[in-house]
Amino acid sequence: MREVVPPPGSERAKKFRSIIVRTMTTLIMLALFFLIMAGGTPFVVMLVLVCQALVYREVTALFELTAQSGGRPIEGKGAEKSEDRWSKTLNWYFFAVTNYFLYGESLIHYFKHVVFADAWLTPFATNHRFISFMLYMIGFVGFVSNLKRQYLRQQFGLFCWVHMTLFLIVVSSHFIVNNILEGLIWFWVPACLVICNDIFAYVWGMSFGRTPLIQLSPKKTVEGFVGAFFTTLVFAYILGTFSMRFNYMICPGHDLGVTAWDNVECEKNPVFIWRDLPIGEPLVTILSTWARRPVTSIPVAPFQFHSVVLACFASLVAPFGGFFASGFKRAFDIKDFGDSIPGHGGMTDRMDCQFLMGMFTYVYYSTLIRVNHVTPGSILQIIVSSLGPQEQLELYRELTSYLHGRGLLGSS
Amino acid sequence: MREVVPPPGSERAKKFRSIIVRTMTTLIMLALFFLIMAGGTPFVVMLVLVCQALVYREVTALFELTAQSGGRPIEGKGAEKSEDRWSKTLNWYFFAVTNYFLYGESLIHYFKHVVFADAWLTPFATNHRFISFMLYMIGFVGFVSNLKRQYLRQQFGLFCWVHMTLFLIVVSSHFIVNNILEGLIWFWVPACLVICNDIFAYVWGMSFGRTPLIQLSPKKTVEGFVGAFFTTLVFAYILGTFSMRFNYMICPGHDLGVTAWDNVECEKNPVFIWRDLPIGEPLVTILSTWARRPVTSIPVAPFQFHSVVLACFASLVAPFGGFFASGFKRAFDIKDFGDSIPGHGGMTDRMDCQFLMGMFTYVYYSTLIRVNHVTPGSILQIIVSSLGPQEQLELYRELTSYLHGRGLLGSS
Hints:
Two copies of one chain form a homodimer.
Chain A: H1 8-39, H2 41-70, H3 77-110, H4 112-115, H5 122-126, H6 128-145, H7 152-182, H8 185-208, H9 222-243, H10 247-250, E1 275-278, H11 281-291, E2 297-300, H12 302-316, H13 319-331, H14 347-369, H15 376-386, H16 389-405
Antiparallel strand pairs in A: 1-2
C-alpha cells in the first residue's frame, strides 16, 4: 500500500484537482474521438490498432516488473540483458504474427474484390492460414530452442503471459475492427455506452456512493453501478435513435475514402428501418391527448431495442473487465498500468471494458443481426476466388446462354 | 534431481527392463489404436476426446502442485479447501464451454443436413456462437466475482494457465477431430508418422546416440533426431501409398455407422488419384532393364508427396512440442506428467507432439488440399435460384468486365 493519508484539508483539494484533471482529459479524449470518428473508417481502425499496441506494451512491460521482483536468482548482468532483449523480440514477434493473421482474415473477408483482383496478393490470400501458422511455428521453435535451464520458469511464464495478452487484447480488438467494417455504428454505440457507463459510475459513485461493490477496488460502489445502469439504458435509447439517422454510420465501411461529410448510400440492414408498432388502449388515449391528434401506433426501429441490449451488457457485464483489470493491478501492487493519460493512468486502465464490449457486440451482431444476403457482388467474389480461368469462362458461356434463353439478353 | 545413480550392473538390468516395459506398452497401445481405427469415425473421435480430457487433467493438476510449492502463505486450512474446489470447478467449466463451442462448430459444419433438419436443434445451431460466448462470460464473471485479495496472484496464475492449456490442447484436438471427419487418413497418417518418429528417435538414439541435441533433455541425441528423420520419410512414402488404397480411409466421415469392414464409396479427392509421371532418359533405361519391359512413366499420386511433407513436419518441427513439454517438466522439477501409461509416464508425455502435428495437418489440409466443391454448375444454380432478373443482368455485366479486365474475353 503506497497510499499516504494526507491532512483532511489537502485531501479535499487533491480530490478536487484530480476531478478537474480527469474531466479535462476526458473532454479532450472525447473531442479527439469525435474527430477521428468523422474522419472515416481507416482512421477509426488506426485508432483501435494504436490503442491495442499501447495496451499490449503496457501489459507485457508489467511482466518484466513481476519477473524482477519475484523471479529466480539471475546469474550475471550480461545474460539478463540479452535474455531481456530476446524476450522483448519474441513478444513483439508473436504480436506481429497474431495481427498479421487476424487482420489478414478481415482484409480477405471484407476486401475480396481488391485482394483477389491483384495477382500479386492472391497467393497470400489463398494460403493465408498456412503462412500465418508457419510464421507462428517459427516463433514457437525459436522459443523452445532458446529455453535456458536457469530461466525456465520465467520463460514459460512469459510465454503464457504473452499468449494470454494476445487472446484477451489482440483477438478482441480484431473483433472491434470487424465491427467497424460492418458499419461505424457497431463501434460507435458500444464504445459510447461503455464511456457513458464509466463516467456515470464515477459521477453517481462520487455523489451518492456509500456501499462498496467489490472487495478489490474500494472506489467502486453499488450506487455508482446501479445509477450508471439506468443512465446508460436511457442514453442507449437516445444515442441509438439519433445515430441510426446517418447513412455514414450504418453503411458498411467498404469504401475507405468516405468521411462524415460525404454522402453515402447503401442497402440498409432491416434493423435500421422504421416500422409502426400498434399500441393498446391506455397508451392510445394518453398519447393522443398528449400529441393532440389520434395516435394508434408508434414508430420503432429494431436497432433501438438492440441498442438497449448493448447497454445492458455495457453496464452489467463489461464492468467485470474493469474489475478483472483492478484485481490484476492489485495482484502486482501497482496503481495504474501506465501514465500515458493524465488523471486516467495508462491506456489499459481506460480500455479494459472496451475489449469485452467489442467482443460481445461482434458475437451479438454476427449471430443475431447480420444478414447474409446473396448479391451479385457476393457471387462475383465466389467466382473470382474459387474458380480457375477456364471454369470462369465456362460459367460465363452457361450464364450467357441462360440469359439468352430467358430473353433477358439481346440476340447479338 | 531425484535420480539416483545405481551400481553399473543393476543400471544395465534396469535399462533393459525399462526397454521391455516400454516396448510392451507401446505394442499394446498400437494394437488398441488399430482396433479403434477399424471401429469407425465415432470411436476415433471418442479416443481423441478421452486423450484430451486426460491431458487436460494432468496439466491442470500440475498447477496445484506449483501453487503449493511456490505460492503465498495460506490463511486457514478451510479456506484453502474451498478455494481448491472452486478452482477445480472453474477449470472444468472452462473446459466444458470450450469443448461445447468447438465441437458445436464442427458438428454444425459437418452435419448440416442433420442439425438444420431438426427443429429442436436449429436454434442452438444458428445461435451457437452467441450461446458459447455467454457461457464463457458466465465463467468470466464467476471468476472475477470470486477474486480474493489474499489469493490474487494464484487465481490469476490459474486463469492464465487454464487458458493456455485450453489453447494448446483443446483447440488442437478440435483440429484433430476435424481431420478425422475429413477422412480417417488425415488423422491416421500424421498420427503414425509422429509415433514412428518417436520410436525411431528412441531406437537410433539408444543404438548410436552420442551427441546431445538440446540442453533440456539429455536423452535426446542428434543421431536419434537425424536417423528418425530419414526413417520417417521412407515410412511416410510406404504408409501413404498403402493407406490411400482404402476407401474407408480416404472418404469423409459423414456416415457414422461405417466400420473398416463396410464398403464405402465416395468421390475421391484428386490427391488420391493415380497419374503417370513421364520420366527422363537414365531412369527409362534403368527401370526398363529392371522390369524387363519398356517403362517410360511411373504411376504417382499427389498424396505420396503430401505424406512426405507431413513426415518432414513430424520429424523436424513436431519434436519441438516434445521439447516444450520437456522444458516444462524440468521447470517444475517433475519427471513425467502422470503415471497412467507404464514405461511412458502420463498421457501428456505421449501426446505432446500429436497436438502440433494435428494442427499442422489441419492447416495444411484446409489450405492446400481441401476441394471446395464450387463448380460452374453449382454457381449457376445459386444465380438462378437466388437472384432476380435485374440482379442476374448486373452480375452478367460485372462478370463480363472482370473477364475483359483479366484478358480472358476477346474485345468484342
